[in-house]
Amino acid sequence: MAYPDKKLHIIACDVGQGDAILATYGNLQILTDGGPDNKVLECLSKYMPFWDREVELVILTHPQADHFTGLIEVFRRYKVDTFLVSKLNSSARSYEVLEKAVGSNQSRVVNPKEGMVIRLGLIQIEILHPSESILEQKSLDLNDYSTVYNLKFGDFEALFTGDIGPKIIEEILAKNSIELVDYIKIPHHGSRNGTALELLKASMPKLAVISVGKDNSYGHPHQEVLKMLKDLGIQIKRTDEMGDVEIETDGRGFKLLNP
Amino acid sequence: MKFLFWGLLFFVALLRILTFKTPVTDGQKVRISTKVLQEPIRQQNYQRLVLENLIVYLDPFPEVYYGDEVVVEGVVSQNKLVSAKLLSVKENQGILPNFRKRLINFYQDSLPEPHASLIAGITLGSKGSLGKDFWDKLKNTGVVHVVVASGTNITLVAGFLVGITTFLLKRRLAIVFVLVGIWLYAVLSGFDAPIVRAAIMGSLVFTAQEVGRLSQSFRVLVITGLLMLIIKPAWIRDLGFILSFVATGSLIVFQERINKKIQILPAVIREGMSTSLAAQIGVAPILFVTFGSFNILSPIINALVLWSVPLIMVISGVAGLVGLLFPFLGRMILYLTYPLTSWFVFVVDFFG
């Protein structure tokens, strides 16, 4: 059972092949994506006090099944204050079910846009992507619309990248909006057409977290990505190898809790 | 006379089993329009239903619940319906299925996992929402019978109802009340074979007491089994049916003797230990043949957790009833189960 403390915890939940990342600070929770099934509930249960049935912010980076399916039960079981989600369509039947669950939760729905800043207590979230010009293009891969954001807490910074690919990375880099960070969520489960060397060089994280399922059929994470990280001396932690990856920070540096 | 009665009963049951056939042949494309009589089991890529004795795998969405009316199309292959498609699903608005759904929602809204699912399993036999990891651990440790609807639930409900009604009502009226309660609960908890068995046996025993006849457990068990097979011969292939009868039979034969032999143990775990050991004598060989394994530590694990089950069931039952009217108050009562379910989960995690 988790007791609230005065530190920010970031947990990359082991949800198999998919993403679900929980940030907690005291009684405040931010959940980014929900993974492909209900395993995310175990993660919330483990890292939240049992009496806390409220998640302050849920972010869905983009509407693909390995990112949103688990959110259905989250919206059914927890009170969600704000839901940050782009206006995109998914052909999946389950997405309708999610929309219905969000509706009955009466969450405030906010569409992310480049430049938007969200403050929750001492945590600040700066949206780097999608830009307006991207949102106007209707024909892109869903991955390219991923919500990308910087999470700041004191001097600590973390970069969350959804499933963006090289084209989008280039675009974000061109705007000089990537800052030096402590922590990065590697894009697209470590796929080859996710992480670009330039992104790592611009952000120079100390820790790279890859959310990926054991023996997945996509061959994630790709060897090239792992080599790139090694060559730059960035520590790699993978959910398929160690389960949940949890760090804590008091706003200066951070500590890996399950080394 | 006695011989004629038993002979006839056995004969009819046998006749029903031998003449019973799946009404369709392999490879035949069929459309089934029916009510969902067993709770679907949900996994990431499918939900598993049993319709008209056929196992059906459907896409996980839209979700189908116990009691819903469904129309499904697919091809029969042995006891499965393959490449099945859900053509329509109509939610059951009946009082009992709705009540069950609202209770489960109350548990899931109030407690984290696996506590919420554990409670839904213990009180209502709902196993649909248990996570796969925890389900596997329950199976490995041999305590999975606690979260599937089993005879124990009926015994507890009956005991609870007897406890309150005998205070308030006359004996004859109290028994009617208890019988109605047992059967309402049987429907509420999914009407699986073990529940039906316990409900019939319970009803027989209570009525027999009422008309002044001494009930003999083993005979009641056999009559119940034969009656059930006459009504639904397909149950002969239902593992839950078989296990329920073998376990109950073993309990009747062995539990008292084992209980006497383990007098040294503290009372709180003695009951669970002797129950589990007695049931295992019959059940373990079947589990071993069916699943290829059984846990030798299972009686010890059962002894460690079984004492908490009646407490969890009664507290959650009361909390659920209160919670549907006064959510906050219900939640406060439900929190009382948290130490108990935490202990249960800890033991299962430790041994699983």
From TrEMBL, chain B:
The keyword Cell membrane applies. Pfam families: Competence. Keywords: Cell membrane, Membrane, Transmembrane, Transmembrane helix. Its main location: membrane. It comes from Candidatus Woesebacteria bacterium RIFCSPHIGHO2_12_FULL_46_16. This is ComEC/Rec2-related protein domain-containing protein. The chain crosses the membrane at residues 142-161, 173-191, 238-255, 275-297, 304-326, 332-351. One of its GO terms (cellular component) is plasma membrane. It comes from the Bacteria. It is found in: Cell membrane. It is a multi-pass membrane protein. The lineage of its organism: Bacteria, Candidatus Woeseibacteriota. InterPro entries: ComEC_N, Competence_DNA_uptake. Residues 122-351 form the ComEC/Rec2-related protein domain.
